[in-house]
Design a protein that fits this description.
- By secondary structure, the protein is an alpha/beta fold.
- The protein is built from 14 helices and seven strands.
- The protein folds into two domains: about 10-105 and about 215-295, Vaccinia Virus protein VP39 (Rossmann fold, 3-Layer(aba) Sandwich), CATH 3.40.50.150; about 135-215, Putative methyltransferase TM0872, insert domain (DNA polymerase, domain 1, Orthogonal Bundle), CATH 1.10.150.
- The protein has a seven-stranded mixed beta sheet, sandwiched between helices.
- It is globular and about 60 Å long.
Length: about 300
């Protein structure tokens, strides 16, 4: 199991951080290990990288990389950063999140994140814990109103109510268990002109289901609440997001921290990938990076 994921905005994160030999880094979204490997090289044998991921497969892939520092892998959410810091008796010089779905999960996981293979089961959970919530369960049990709300709220899908209505009608006849079944429902729910746009008509609904399945926004809120408490004075928090709703929460939180003296904005505007990066990695095109330096906590 080898990673195919390309880390996004990596050089911009390094350029806007203050890590050096001996620094302690938190990589909250390990993915394929691209960030952690570079951070490990910078902080060296005297430094430490603590890397977390809910996807245990990601940890297996990342462990195939070469690390120059001590590296601790944790199968948990970045929202538990306070507990993880306490368990390792550390505070951080840099804490990083990349909130995008990794190429490994899209192309290799077989959990229904992508709509390319219609036979894949609609799992969509980052975790492989038997007790996890799956997209299948959400489609089978949530009310029409709740489904419409998440498809619109998390996906920005303007045909959310039509899609939710057809999901509920279809599930009365048969379980909605595969990618292909859901894609067919979505295509039936939107106008023909919408089906032939450059962006696949299922993109927004799949994004919304993934966010709901993994409670992603709750994890972000937990992280933002807890991260200032575990940073060293002058430590950097850097977050890459791909969803306008996520970015809005991060932007407003960082601005509030800046006003309240919790931190100092490194860049008032979001940092975006260069044209060269987008040409080499098209999936980076919607990425935005926000960076803040944490002040001494009272």
């Amino acid at each position: 199991m080898k990673t195919v994921h390309v880390p996004v905005l990596l050089q911009e994160i390094v350029d806007n951080s203050n890590i050096e030999l001996g620094s302690v880094v938190f990589d909250g979204t390990l993915g394929g290990g691209g960030y952690s490997e570079v951070f490990s090289e910078i902080v060296g044998p005297e430094g430490l990288v603590v890397a977390t991921d809910l996807d245990s497969d990601a940890i297996v892939r990342a462990k195939q990389r070469t690390y120059k520092s001590k590296t601790v892998f944790v199968n948990d959410s970045y929202g538990s950063i306070d507990t993880i810091a306490a368990e390792n008796n550390v505070s951080f010089d840099l804490a990083v999140l990349d909130l995008g779905l990794s190429s490994d999960q899209l192309d290799q996981s077989k959990r229904g994140f992508s709509f390319k293979d219609g036979s894949e089961a609609l799992d969509m959970s980052f975790s492989v814990d038997p007790e996890r919530t799956t997209a299948q369960e959400i489609l089978a049990t949530w009310s029409e109103e709740s489904l419409a709300d998440i498809i619109f709220g998390f996906g920005g899908e303007k045909y959310s109510r039509r899609i939710a209505k057809n999901i509920v009608e279809d599930r009365e006849d048969h379980a909605i268990e595969t990618v292909g079944q859901l894609v067919d429902i979505i295509k039936r729910s939107v106008p023909a002109s919408y089906r032939h746009k450059k962006t696949h008509p299922a993109t927004k609904t799949f994004q919304a289901l993934r966010i709901a399945t993994n409670r992603e926004w709750q994890h972000i809120e937990d992280f933002l609440e807890r991260v200032p408490l575990v940073m060293k004075e002058g430590g950097i928090v850097a977050i890459v997001s791909f969803h306008s709703g996520e970015d809005r929460v991060i932007k407003h939180t960082f601005r509030r921290w800046n006003q309240d003296g919790v931190g100092t904005l490194i860049s008032k505007k979001a940092i975006k990938p260069t044209e060269d990066e987008v040409s080499k990695n098209p999936r980076s095109r919607s990425a935005v990076l926000r960076v803040i330096q944490i002040n001494k906590q009272s």
